[in-house]
Each structure stands twice: as C-alpha cells, then as structure tokens.
Amino acid sequence: xxxLTKRGLIAAVVCSDTFMKLGTxxxxxxxxxxxxxxxxxxxxxxxxxxKVVERASVALPQLLKVVKEKQS
Amino acid sequence: xxxxxxxxxxxxxxxxxxxxxxxxxEYLCAKGWSDGLPxxxxxxxxxxxxxxxxxxxxxxxVVKIPPRFGAATPIRVAANAVMAGCKPEYFPLxxxxxxxxxxxxxxxxxxxxxxxxxxxxxxxNGPVAREVGINSGHNAMGNYFRANAVIGRAVRxxxxxxxxxxxxxxxxxxxxxxxxxxxCVAENEDNSPxxxxxxxxxxxxxxxxxxxxxxxxxxxxxxxxxxxxxxxLTMVAGTMANTGSNNAYYAGQPVLAFGPEHAATVAKGxxxxxxxxxxxxxxxxxPLSKFSQEGIDRRFRRKxxxxxxxxxxxxxxxxxxxxxxxxxxxxxxxxxxxQYVPTFGxxxxxxxxLKREDGELVRxxxxxxxx
Lengths: 72, 371
What we know:
The complex is a heterodimer of chains A (72) and B (371).
Chain A: H1 2-6, E1 13-16, H2 20-29, E2 37-40, H3 49-71
Chain B: H1 4-8, H2 21-31, H3 44-50, E1 63-65, E2 70-72, H4 74-84, H5 91-101, H6 108-113, E3 119-125, H7 127-132, H8 146-161, E4 184-186, H9 197-200, E5 209-215, E6 219-222, H10 229-240, H11 247-250, E7 255-258, H12 260-268, H13 273-283, E8 285-287, H14 293-303, H15 305-308, E9 316-318, E10 327-330, E11 337-341, E12 350-353
Parallel strand pairs in B: 3-4, 7-10
Antiparallel strand pairs in B: 1-2, 3-5, 5-12, 6-11, 7-11, 8-9
C-alpha cells in the first residue's frame, strides 16, 4: 500500500483495532505517515460470513470517505 | 574508521543516570530498553571494549532490523551486547547472527511482527563455538551457560531496541515464548555420528557458522524403550505431527535436535541423515480428518486447494514440504531425549560462515581482535 500511495494511487489498509499501533508505526516507517487505516473490530481472522460482512460494513464508509477526500 | 569518541558526541547518543545498579536497571526498564531482566550498563568504556572484536566501521549499518528498519550499526549492537552480558569475543557471533536473520529467506519482518510464538534459534557449528564456550552438552537448550544465555539475549535485545519488536506494537505475539529471552545452542559435533550441519550445507569442517531458524520452543521426545532406528523415529514422528503447528499449513524447515544417545541408536541401525529425513517426512503426517471441519473447509479446501480441494479425509498432511527441508542436528548430553523444534513456517533457515573482512574463514575468534 505504501508503494501504491507513493505512485499517486488512492490506497488504504484495513486494520483491526488491536493492530492500529503497528499499522500507524509501519506507515511512518514506509514513508507514508498519512496512509489511511480503516479501523475495524478485532479479530479479522476466524470469522463467519456474517461477521465478515459486519466488518466490511464498518470499513466501507471509511473507504468512501478517504476516496472522496483524496479526489476533492 | 570512525572514532567512537566522536560518535558519542552525537546528540542523544549518551544518557546519564545514577550508577547504582538498581537505579540503572530501573532507568533502562523505564525506557523500555531491557528484556525485563537486569542488564549491564552500556557505558562508553564497556561498549569500546565490546568493539575490540569488531572489524567493521562502528557507525556503518551491518543490517537494518524491521519492523522499524532500524540501522544495526556495530556501536548500537555493541551497546545491546554489553547489556546482555556478552564478552567481547562473543560480539562477532552476535553480528553474524543478525546478518543471517536479515537475509530475505528468513523473513525477519514477518517473524518479528507475527502473532505466532517464534524467535531466532541460533545453531552454531565449528571451532569458534567451542572456543567461546557455547554449550552443546547437558542442558544445551537450557540455562546456566553464559555464552548460550547472552549471545541469544544480545540478539533479542537488538531486535527489540534497534528493530522495535516491542510487544503489542511491533511484536504482536499472542503469548510469545520463553525462548524469546535466548535460544542459542551449538551442535554436539564430537558426539554426533553424522556430519555436522554446516558441513552438510557445504562448508568446510573447520569453518564456523551460524544457522538461524524462526523457531518455537523445543518440544521433547522421550523414548527410553526403543532400541532400533524405526522405534525412535516412530516416537519422533508422533511428536512432530500435531494439528496446531504452523508447519502443518506453511511448511518451512523444522528442526530435529537428536540427543546423542538417540542419534547413536539411529546411526548404528544404518541410517544416514538423508534417510532419517525421508523416513520422517513419510510418517510425520496427520490425516486430514484430524483437523477441525472449519480448518478443512477454509484452509485446506480453499487456501491449499491445489493439494486438498477434493482430497479424501484420510489424505496425509505432511509437516514440511520436502524431506530435505527438515534440519537435523545433534545436541545435548546423556539421556534418552531428543528435541523437535517447529517453526513459523513461512520462513527459511539461513546459514552464514564467520569470515574476516578479507573474506577468509575465521578459524579462531582471536583473528578478529583489533590491534
């Protein structure tokens, strides 16, 4: 995602709340401190489809907001 | 060569605190620079002494350590080696291990940040391991022996302090492993019936080398009854085959560390290392039916679809991809025990020989002493 951002594409990372600190630190390390992190509830793995949809419904509005902001 | 004195003038290079041992320990813990155990204060004098066995520029990065990708310069690594309790002659082995860890196949980034409880297992071979006193006899994977304790500890401190593998932010291990304090052994070459690991991998016998493995803690194989190779290997295979192991999904290169007595029985029965690997690969398997239904449906049928999409439930799941991927060493003292060391899976072991700056193999650690 860092590479995509550096190439000028709109990119974001889905990140569970437990991993936000790691995600934020890594975005800085890779030179894209403003890389949007789409925060969802942990865990991301081991979910049934209902829970996956639930996580996606939380992430999607955040993604749309990022896209709108970047395009404006 | 950069001068150590001038490096220490860099802003932030030095900190001051009360020189009482407890005050120093409190200070370093508060800074997050310890592993939770007391450390030796890395004073300029001690760091300089540590660097007396360093043939590199003190401020030139040897490697970069993820997830921060911090520059592991000799001076920084030396500070961590002092804190760990290293003798200066251990220092080249700490640097060697870090160089091996930074090679791409090891996947240091993944192994540092993962939720899996893996840590670098350092396996030393050759004369330098003996010279500096890395234990390969009784309790080789345990406590008591300084070189084993502090070389592994210096590597771990470097991974944390330079690489920022800090629990909860850079090291996301769910529970971790006690092996994260140190996991450093030497192969018991004198009591092995086979060629040592570094020779098997193509190095001369008198070379000194480290092999790094992204390892879990060792799992014991107790077998006081078997007197044939097949008997002992049956017990080993049973210990290797467990459904919760990363190796069942991601392959990788697990380690079988024979105790010398088990190794002798297997070798006297006529088996070479290659035959041991082949035998175990065929038998250290789990039928697909032993995994959870969700595991079968979601992982084996989908993620590993090439092999298991339509596989019958009695299909054997091998614990590593190819027979030769198993690493076999001999270590420890008397007794009817061997150790199986599973790994992170998505990682390859890396072996590096200890060399001088001119590229020649080091036969004695004293060759690296300055001046």
